[in-house]
Amino acid sequence: GAGVSQSPSNKVTEKGKDVELRCDPISGHTALYWYRQSLGQGLEFLIYFQGNSAPDKSGLPSDRFSAERTGGSVSTLTIQRTQQEDSAVYLCASSLASGTYEQYFGPGTRLTVT
Amino acid sequence: DQQVKQNSPSLSVQEGRISILNCDYTNSMFDYFLWYKKYPAEGPTFLISISSIKDKNEDGRFTVFLNKSAKHLSLHIVPSQPGDSAVYFCAASARTRTGANNLFFGTGTRLTVIP
């Protein structure tokens, strides 16, 4: 694949429902990051995966947020009991290795919680 | 608390002139700085970067300047072209204890290059 892909591109959900967002990183990239961009804000770091190491979850805003990465490739970000303040664009990025600063972003998933 | 700040939300420049986008940061632990360009409905695209051991990095029409004492960096685009119209994000990185290179982003500057 050419770049990072994310699905769905748009998601509208009702408050209180759970949502799953998917990220397919660039093949061969071992590091994977999730960010979100709320309206009028910069990108906010959420979670980081590197190979088989335990993820860095320091950016997750609450325990309603979780993420997993299966087989060192595809990642899923899950938001439980969504709230209106969860509405944002969720961006996934990958990089060749943890020591590489340049990250390559997917197009994002726009989440709207009504 | 915004550790990376872009105080100009928008900038308009005539085609052929220089565009200067500014960025300030507060965390002295940042050791790598990047500029990303973002078109609507697309993810940010890496543009150019600079290590804290340098004060200038040039790539074609794009030059990034870093002033560590002022905790300030800028992106110069010359000559500006209409295709450069996009939102530009400044980002800074500091290695965490887990080895992650988390990027801290500014809020972006929307550049419009007028033909």
List keywords for this structure.
heterodimer; A: 114 residues; mainly beta; six-stranded mixed β-sheet; four-stranded antiparallel β-sheet; globular; B: 115 residues; five-stranded antiparallel β-sheet; 53% strand
Please give a structural write-up:
The complex is a heterodimer of chains A (114) and B (115). By secondary structure, chain A is mostly beta strands. Chain A is 0% helix and 46% strand. Chain A has no helices and ten strands. The radius of gyration of chain A is 13 Å and the shape is globular. With 115 residues, chain B is an all-beta fold. Chain B has strands spanning 4-5, 10-14, 19-25, 32-38, 45-51, 56-59, 62-67, 72-77, 86-93, 103-105, 109-114. In chain B, strands 2, 4, 5, 9, 10 and 11 form a six-stranded mixed beta sheet that branches. Chain B is globular and about 45 Å long. The chains are: A mainly beta (114), B mainly beta (115). Chains A and B meet through strand 4, strand 5, strand 8 and strand 9 of A and strand 4, strand 5, strand 9 and strand 10 of B.
Number of helices of chain B: 0
Structural class by helix and strand composition of chain A: mainly beta
Q: What does the largest sheet of chain B look like?
A: 6 strands, mixed
Q: Would you count the extended β strands of chain A for me?
A: 10
The share of residues in extended strands of chain B comes to over 45%
Low-confidence stretches of chain B: none
Give the helix/strand layout.
The complex is a heterodimer of chains A (114) and B (115).
Chain A (H helix, E strand, L loop, with lengths): L4 E3 L2 E4 L5 E6 L6 E7 L5 E8 L14 E5 L5 E5 L8 E8 L8 E2 L3 E5 L1
Parallel strand pairs in A: 2-10
Antiparallel strand pairs in A: 1-3, 3-7, 4-5, 4-8, 6-7, 8-9, 8-10
Chain B lengths: L3 E2 L4 E5 L4 E7 L6 E7 L6 E7 L4 E4 L2 E6 L4 E6 L8 E8 L9 E3 L3 E6 L1
